[in-house]
Design goal:
globular; 78% helix
Length: 320
Amino acid sequence: MEIFKLTVTQMLMMFTLILVGFILRRKSPLPDNSHTVMSKLETFVFVPALSLFTMMSKCTVETFAENSALILYGAVIVGVAVAVSYPLSMLFVRKTKGSPELAYQRNVYKYAMVFGNYGFMGNFIILGVWGADFYYKYSLFTLIISIICNSWGLYILIPKEQNVSLWKNLKKGLLTPPIIASAIGIAVGLLGLGKYVPDFMMSALDNAAKCQGPVAMVLAGFVIGGYNFKGLILNKKVYVATLFRLILIPSALMLILGGLGVNKEIMTLALIAFATPLGLNTIVYPAAYGGDTETGASMAMISHTLSVITIPLMYLIFIA
């Protein structure tokens, strides 16, 4: 129950920061392109700093050997989620023949059935409730998830007329700053080179890492605040998709893992990774390539709001 209370507190704190971002966008004290700056800071500075600091300070031959199976668990679960997303997405957009717009909308729902905000929000929850040691395990668990998200996930969010190949995106997925930072951190940790890293550099990484969560939540609110509020809440399909994203999919996952006798630590990692609300990729990437952003923005706003209740509730039901 103590962890449940901490989870509720963490979710309320995140919702407050999202609300701050929303108000900043609506009251316009910041430039409209501020979300681009915040997003680049997250991608190129704060998240890599968090990954690098965690791996260099926590990853040793012993801890990696003990927890390496988490990488396999994450890979298997996300692989099953990708397979299941194809039939599930057809529930929301049934006919796409002759309509690139409908085909693209189906891909947005397909992405939403697989990936929540496991990175920005998931990191914030794990660090706030369980701390750095558990975050190390979460980083290993989400390693393959991140690669799939940044390759297949972004491939389906790019309109097909852009002619971006899946293979090209897979290479991009392996070369994102957070993945590169994780790989470097693991290598430094396993080789025992962390003791040679100056204290001031570790302090710099630690302080940059602490910015990741708050800035990510302000970013979410800022992006959502740029859309018409009334228009975002009128799409009935989005509520059904949010039900799948926040409750049905993670519930099925918890029941399967529990039935297989998986321990509660792995179940907790899976719950946080797959019960988080839809992230901002369904807004940012379609906007960059001229695709539809309203469906993704609507689902991001509604799912982020409801997740304040659903994530602690799911933890209470299946784990606490």
